[in-house]
Amino acid sequence: MAFERKYSDDLRKKSVERVFERRRAEPHNRAILREVAEEFEVGPQSLRQWVARYDDGSYGYDDPVPTHRSYGSSSRSELLARVLELEQQVQTLEEDNRALTRVASLFAGQLRGVDALSDGRSAIQTTGYPVALHS
After folding, report:
1. pLDDT (tens digit, 9 = 90+) per residue, 48-93?
2. Residues 33, 50: contact at Cβ < 8 Å?
3. DSSP 8-state assignment for residue 61
4. Of 11, 34, 123, 127, which has the fewest beta carbons less than 10 angstroms from its beta carbon?
5. Are residues 13 and 62 in the same domain?
């Protein structure tokens, strides 16, 4: 016996479109899936799966449903590549920030008369000679 789909493709598409319309109109409403599921008389979990499939690109609509995000015409692989690029950029900026913080603490230590490069056990007095601090 062949498997029969419980919901038509047209119903699936219309319900997913409605979810995205509502998300654009009411971005903070967390009950949209439940409400749209009731509106179309489908199971909320089924609708959640349809929306997830659309989001990850595996649903295969001929004409795409307008999304609630403004990604333009970027494909999923392009978006993932962009995320990777941005993560690398964040890592570089964090490293630069740590280096600048170390340099700033060095200059601040010199202004206070403390050698900021050490482990805190030595200091430079105003005379300029290193002095060991006793712990």
Report:
1. 999 988 887 766 655 555 554 555 556 778 888 889 999 999 999 9
2. no
3. -
4. 127
5. yes
Domain at 34, CATH number = 1.10.10
Phi-psi region of 66 (alpha: psi -120 to 50; beta: other; left: phi over 0): beta
CB-count burial class (<10 Å; 0-12, 13-18, 19+) for 42:
middle
User: Of the candidates 70, 94, 109, which is a domain's last residue?
Assistant: 70
Residue count of the chain, please give it.
135
- Looking at the structure, do residues 62 and 92 belong to the same domain, yes or no? no
Predicted TM-score (pTM) of the model is 0.44
Last residue of a domain, one of 45, 70, 95: 70
Q: Which amino acid would we find at residue 108?
A: A
Determine the Cα–Cα distance for residues 123 and 109; give it in Å rounded to an integer. Answer: 9
- The CA-CA-CA angle for residues 15, 5, 29, to 5°, reads 20
